[in-house]
Write a structure and sequence with these properties.
The chain has helices at about 1-25, 225-260; strands at about 35-45, 45-50, 55, 60, 65-70, 70-80, 85-90, 95-100, 105, 110-115, 120, 130, 135, 150, 155-160, 170, 175, 185-190, 190-195, 200-205, 215, 220. The protein is an alpha+beta fold. It has 2 domains: about 1-60 and about 65-80 and about 225-260, no CATH class; about 85-220, no CATH class. The strands form 10 sheets. Strands 10-9-13 form a 3-stranded antiparallel beta sheet, with no helix packed on it. The protein has a 3-stranded antiparallel beta sheet with strand order 14-15-16, with no helix packed on it. Strand 15 and strand 16 form a beta hairpin.
Length: about 260
């Protein structure tokens, strides 16, 4: 019965973390290019009372053995990098990636981070930066006399400096891919850092080898389905309640044992 108490408690802890994960997904439903998290569960240590195949007599053996588990725990959290809905905007520097690529930005420390959030704006020098002021890398600088800016699907940035004038190419935007994007480390602010698990970032041109294309004047919405998250929330709540019920039953059984000596 004491085993049941600890086993059920482990299930409650796992479901609590599931609720925490779902709450974070729902909280970021309007965050640009947010990617939902999912948890993976695994069973914990088993106590073996009888090995499968243990002999039970002459030329006889047990077909299954006897093992009792000790509960569940969280194995890992997984970022789901499915494509979010592409939503048109009126901002010429908004860019959405349709595909698997990432933008790279340069931090003030000189480190690089990667993002799917293409809500860029020009700073005082005309350089495209994120909302936090991190510079897009390779850098793109918009001339002060530009009256129209065009970003093609292959990342070519062109400007027009006069009415009726011809467009001229000034830069190219690169995208980056990873062998295992789920191995990226989320650091907040819509940013990711590469890890040993993700592999090194591979710089590529938009539209090549599955990297994706760039859509100007558009952003990628979060890939969170509120309906799915609410269903998952209800399931986590019910599982939590069932585990708490197991604790209550174990407590009542212990109480019955204690009453035997009265």
């Amino acid at each position: 019965m004491m085993r049941a108490l600890m086993t059920a408690a482990s299930g409650m802890k796992a479901q609590q973390m599931q609720v925490d994960t779902i709450a974070n997904n729902i909280a970021n439903v309007n965050t640009v290019a947010f990617k939902k998290n999912e948890l993976a569960f695994r069973d914990m240590f088993y106590q073996t009372f009888r090995e499968p195949g243990a002999p039970t007599g002459q030329q006889r053996m047990t077909p299954t053995g006897l093992q009792v588990g000790s509960g569940a725990e969280i194995a890992s959290s997984l970022k789901i990098f499915h494509q979010g809905e592409v939503q048109p905007t009126s901002a010429p520097y908004d860019m959405a990636i349709v595909g698997q690529g990432f933008f790279r930005v340069l931090l003030g420390s000189g480190d690089f981070r990667y993002t799917r959030d293409g809500s860029f704006r020009p700073d005082g020098n005309g350089t495209l930066v994120t909302a936090e002021g991190y510079q897009l890398d390779p850098p793109v600088r918009i001339p002060s006399d530009a009256i129209e800016v065009t970003v093609s699907e292959d990342g070519t940035v062109s400007v027009r400096k006069s009415e009726g004038g011809a467009s001229e190419s000034i830069s190219n935007i690169s995208l980056y891919r990873f062998a295992n994007p789920t191995g990226l480390k989320a650091v907040g602010g819509n940013l990711y850092s590469e890890t040993e698990s993700s592999g090194k970032a591979q710089q590529q041109s938009p539209g090549s080898t599955g990297t994706g294309i760039i859509k100007q004047s558009a952003i990628e919405r979060a890939n969170v389905s509120v309906v799915d998250e609410l269903v998952g929330l209800i399931m986590a709540q019910r599982n939590y309640e069932v585990n708490s019920r197991a604790i209550k039953v174990s407590d009542e059984m212990l109480q019955q044992v204690n009453n035997l000596i009265r």
